[in-house]
Amino acid sequence: MTLAGRNILVGLTGGIACYKTPHLVRLLKKAGADVRVMMTESATRFVAPLTLESVAQQPVITDMWPKPGEYVGTRHIDTAEWPDLIVIAPTTANLMAKAAAGLCDDFVTTVICATSKPIVLAPAMNPEMWRHPVTQRNLRYLVDELGWLLIDPDAGEMACDSYGIGRMAEPEAMFDRLADILQQTHAQSDLLAGRHLIVTAGPTREPVDPVRFISNRSSGKMGYALAEAARDAGARVTLISGPTALASPPGVAMENVETTSEMRDAVMRQLSDADVLLMAAAPADFTPAHAVDTKMKKSERPETLPLSAAPDILRSVAETRTRAQVIVGFALETDEGVANARAKRASKDLDMIVLNSLVDEGAGFDFATNKVTLIDRSDQEEAWPMLSKREVAKRLIKRVATLLSTAAINEPSRP
Ligand code: CTP
To answer: Is 104 designated active site?
Structure first.
């Protein structure tokens, strides 16, 4: 397997598994990769920087601060931007805790906080530490929320004489996994180059008065994950978002909206210039018929709250879309999921609908995971297993790229 021309940054944190990392670096070098190494102070207690320097054939960075007389410029930023992939091997519980909290108190944590490159964790620790709820919470945050990748620790005998899960994977197995990840990220990286994707996300809010609104439980996580996956696939992305608690993804053009009407206007403004619309938002279907612009006093409580229909955005899209565009809807159903989703796909003239079931544990609002079923124009259903929303997003983006490449070809046979 050749890794020629690929840049890999290896970080070591303090654990006995550090003794395996020089071998991993050798395997990467032998496969043609350029490898740079950074170590925490604790890691240097387990293996000498000189060992890593010798196998990487590069100076190893062990300190945030340059020695007197040594000019390093913005070394943490240069180091963060250089690699195609960062692997932290071994990864301690402490590293995960610091990374999850955003601490940047040494060179390794500062670099991983400053990078947008894929980060792979190879944890190694005592089984009790691995099982600890705080370690598992931090791990889930880094993997499910931030999309970092994991090389699972093995089960086996530990340096502390205990037996259980917590041994860092063997260098050969790690090498295979890293090569695989590099291949996948490379294949995905220009999938949507030159394309413009609109992604909608989150709920909308329909005002009752200046302080009250009706809304729904959408968190926006699926839409934000899609926007990031589309960006990583080389697309220009416009993310039209209702109010959410999520941070704007870097490298994505944000348009923040409040109501369904505003979301419809933003989508329609962008549509003629877009190749794809991923309608992952949950726009409110109803809006108070008589919103008032002063706060309704408790003593003025109305008996009923009359509602009128909010615009159906996808129906407006269906009227103006071209056949070369790919329009994907999302359906959230509590029962008769597939039948309802099929009907929605047809009535909204969608190229594909992604059905989320509220019935499955771990799927739906605010979870980091999702279980979806895809229905395309052939009306075939394809059920995916429970996956992280990020993984669902990555796979959907791949599917969208395929739909785009066939959209123009299929045009004459479309209704
Ligand atoms: N949608 C839309 N405009 C709305 C409501 C929903 O464009 N006012 C889009 C959603 O973004 C989603 C798809 O339509 O992609 C299906 O949404 P869903 O709420 O499941 O369906 P509805 O059309 O609202 O139908 P119902 O509420 O009857 O299930």
So the answer is: no
Atom of ligand 1 nearest to the CA of 200: 11
Choosing from 336, 344, 345 the residue with most ligand 1 atoms within 8 A of its CB, the one to mutate for a pocket test is 344
Give the Cα separation of 300 and 374 in Å (integer).
Answer: 47
The string of DSSP codes covering 180-200 is HHHHHHHHHHTTTTT-EEEEE
147 pocket-lining for ligand 1 (C-beta < 6 Å): no
Cα dihedral value 315, 321, 325, 327, nearest 10: 0
pLDDT of residue 415: 42
Contact between residue 379 and residue 398 where contact means Cβ atoms under 8 Å apart:
no
How many whole angstroms separate alpha carbon 16 and alpha carbon 166?
11
Q: What are the C-alpha distances in Å from 319 to residues 268, 316, 323, 350? A: 11, 5, 11, 12
Distance 331 CA to ligand 1 centre (A): 7
Tell me how far the alpha carbon of residue 242 is from its chain's centroid: 19
Interval 154-170: pLDDT, tens: 998 877 788 889 999 99
pLDDT category at 332 given cuts 50, 70, 90 is confident
Establish whether residue 40 lines the binding site of ligand 1, counting it when its CB lies within 6 angstroms of any ligand atom.
Answer: no
* C-beta of 344 in contact with ligand 1 (< 6 A): yes
Rounded Cα distance between 7 and 215, Å, is: 46
So what's the pLDDT on residue 397? 96
pTM above 0.70, yes or no: yes
Catalytically annotated residue among 18, 104, 113, 160: 160
